[in-house]
Amino acid sequence: MDHTTSDLKNISNHFQKVSWKGDSKFTCCCPVHNDRTPSAYVELKNGWINLNCSSGCELSELRAYIKDLGYNKNTKPGPRSNNKRKKKPEPRTPDGYKMLMPVPKKHKELWTTHMHKMFSEYPEGVNPGKYIYAYLNLEDKPLMFVTRKEDKEGKKYFLPHTFWENQEGRVRWDTKAPIDYKPLYIQKITDKLSDIKIVHIYEGEKTTNAGRHRWQDSPEILHVSWLGGSKTWTLADWNHLKLLGGKGAEVHSVVLFPDNDKVGYQAMEGIAWGLPLIFKTRDIKILDFRDKPEGWDIADIETEEELKQLTEAYANAELVELPIVKEFTYVREVDSFYDWDQQLFYKSDHFNRILMTDAVFDENNQRIESSKKFIEAKGTDKAHKITFDPQEKKKFSIGGTVYVNSYVPFVIEPVPGDTAWLDEFFEYIAPDPHIRKYLLQWIAHNIRYPGVKIMTAILIYGVEGTGKGTVYQLIKAMLGKEYVKQVREEQFKDKFTEHLYKRIVLCIDEIKVDYSNRVSMMNKLKNLITEDEFTVDMKGMRPFETKNVVNFLLLTNHDNAITINERSRRFFVFGIDKDPMPGQWYKNIYYKIRTEPGVIKDYFDKVDLSDFDKFAPAPKTKFFNEVVENTKGEDMRMLDTYYEELRWPFTDCNFVCIADLQKGFERLKIRVSLKLLQDWVKSKGGDKIGQIRFGKQRPVIWYIDPNKPRPTELKDIARYYLEPYWPSGEFDTDNYYHLDYVQRRQKDGLAKLDEVSHTKTFF
Length: 763
Known about the structure:
Helices cover 28% and strands 21% of the residues.
């Protein structure tokens, strides 16, 4: 079904900083990357909801996000965006040389020599310390230099100085910056990292040095910036700051110092969103310098008055509005990261954005994808499998296998109240007290023991508007809309099983299994009713096994909606054979469902479950027999008639050979398949016994009725089996027989079979 402007209004609630551009388009912050200024837009076009990002996010990720919200699932794709993510250039490496970062300890002297060389290039009277920035990591290992210079026109530019070595051991300095890895510029006053309590983040090396100078008497403060300016903060190795926690530091506050321009504030806001993942604190503040000239920073302070204003701005810095701190667990089975807050899975490329960088580099300067680094980290939470089980904790272990449980408890406290309307409703749809009792017990068991499998499904049929859907609404109100899902038959038959995952009760509405699909559909349904596990197959995700906790509610307008036989154990069937009540009656019920969930919970908490057996076969009802009869084909009815009337080729013997039955019906000019005969025998509760020796033949024998006694030895069964037989020549309906074991052995020598019993009684 194509989407409408109403769907667009609903989806806008999932985005931040929405600004409408007419009725069919709005701009917003991109949900795929750390976006604080609207760089994305959502548009309704040709019934398709398009999400595009001007920052170059992958179209597949954007489309996946919309699908995760429940849209664009049954519509054709709309026009493709021309917005393609820019591919990063290959690292620029001189022939035979490799960038070393950090600089190896054995080359420490070369580091010092190069620094003196750069100092000597500045004229006398100029302090090179203001123009040469040495990049060291938190452990004081040298990484690289950055020099600040000016051209003839007075324009500033920065040159990186990185250390290179080839396979022969020759070394050199080169003015090429790392492509993927952008180290942080770090200034600290103490060498004892455990003393650090506060982190200041600035935009640029010069400003960082100025901050260190202003707070030179505060060794608990770490001063940090990044390489490349305001637009490259996403490429910086912010995860390096996690080393502070490993060294005993407890950072309780982070203060951000933006340059007074638009891009400066945008960069700091973006950085702020990722900091809770690094420091485990939400005390993140940003200073406001918007009363200062464009581009102003704290390195521009020259007077005591300006210093006083900085002190006041620092004291009055406001907390940054941050999203909820997220907790992630890596799940090996699906190779994805589980977000406990959003209850979503993220693949590696999406998770890299959450970590604020695509890659980091190890001690050997080998590029490592940041998500893999996250997995390898000592403190990363990991699990083997994902499951959904309301009876378990959110994380548990069985036999050494660690499970992530995606169930979040849905709690409704019972409230005593008037429940006469519930009694009236259930007496209306199920006047028979036995049917009503089982229905109430089935519902109550799901509510009181969510996720416990019941080996029966409920089938309710009746004309439209009688209240079948009201049963579904009651269950959904008690268990939560996320865990009670309604699907159509077409969705249930789909190869993807996303609709089954995270469901306590699945309602299949308007079910009507057509004859051509009845076998596959019923087999799938019966397996899901009884099996312990099933495979979750979701688009864009690796399939995985999960515990089967789904119980089924089937609603239909037809008394032949599903194909079941007399021996079916797993379907409790009842029909609503009354005229619909007035519309206001149903409106009052739905109002009660919305406004009195506690009263409904109390009602079902008081249902007696002492004699309810979740494993027992479903009780048989008159409605069950109606469905059985109405779903039989004409051929099955014909076989029933022949068997009930003991018409040839049947006898009242409990044993048959299906191949012989087929030949007998062919003699009667009735065409039946072996498969049909097998299905018919099974519908009676019969099954295959085995192959017996019967004269020169070895027929495969089936028993029909399991309630009749039978020999246990195959050799004994041969004495009781009767073979359909007719004399040679033209077939006469009055001239057919059954041969017993002895007669079959003598058949070739018999001249006449007139005395052969037409009927013999066995068992």
